[in-house]
Amino acid sequence: MVSSKSHTTSWTPVRDDDEFKLTWVHRVWLLIGLTSVAIALIKAIAGSLASAGLWPCYSLFTAFLGYLAADLTSGLYHWAIDNYGNPDTSVYGSYINTFQAHHKWPTDAAYYEAVSGTYKIARGVAFILLPLDLFVTNPLFLSFLGAYGGFSTFSAQFHEWAHRPKSSVPRIVVMLQNMGLLLPPRKHAKHHRPPHEGSYCTISGLCNDFLDNYGVLRRLEMILFSVLGIRPRSWN
């Protein structure tokens, strides 16, 4: 059981600009992560075309499912980081400070270097995808993995674009935001209204309606509170 002490909220987020300064190691991890995604997608396309029939359509559909799954995962991760733990929590404590500092200084996200929020995710994607790239041959599974890994890798960038004025964002991004395919600023703005208890998804925000309208995360919070006695930060 996790003690409630490890989830106290009696701390103040600290702005750490050095966290977003890039090194060549960060860029290498991003390259490795994107390479693992590219391998999965190339194998998926080649396998679908070789199978002919409706396989290319099936692969597109599973890629879309990967896109939705990435959005959902970003929301669940964001919710967990926002509500549980503190900077002293093992493994992900530094991420908690980052997310809470972002609530306090949300416009800072518009000034981060482009790779700064993506290399950490790319590193995780590489560790998971590279072994699967070697052994998985099913094009449907590969298209799902490639889309999931690719959109997950750039989730921090999509999030950052939702904080920028449209004049500083590429036109294609603004168009996709207006279509609701990437996270629109107006939709993400809901998350930055205290107590920051909804609109957690950061890729497209499409899964926010499901999570928020059906109270999925509120139910999870109640379960955790009833079993472990841990209150999420949003309740405060």
Automatic annotation (TrEMBL):
According to the UniProt entry, the coiled-coil residues are: none
Instruction: List the Pfam families.
Output: Lipid_desat
Q: Where is the signal peptide?
A: none
* Location of the Lipid desaturase domain: 67-235
Membrane association type:
Multi-pass membrane protein
| UniProt KW keywords | Membrane, Transmembrane, Transmembrane helix
- Kindly list the places in or outside the cell where this protein is found, as annotated in its UniProt entry: Membrane
Tell me, in one coarse class, where this protein mainly resides: membrane
Example of a GO cellular component annotation carried by this entry: membrane
Q: Which InterPro entries match?
A: Chloroplast_FAD_CarF, Lipid_desat
Where, by residue number, does the polypeptide cross the bilayer? Answer: 28-46, 52-70, 125-148
Instruction: Please state which protein family the record places this protein in.
Output: Belongs to the fatty acid desaturase CarF family.
Classification via PANTHER family: FATTY ACID DESATURASE 4, CHLOROPLASTIC-RELATED
This protein's name: Lipid desaturase domain-containing protein
Query: Which organism's genome codes for this protein?
Result: Aristolochia fimbriata
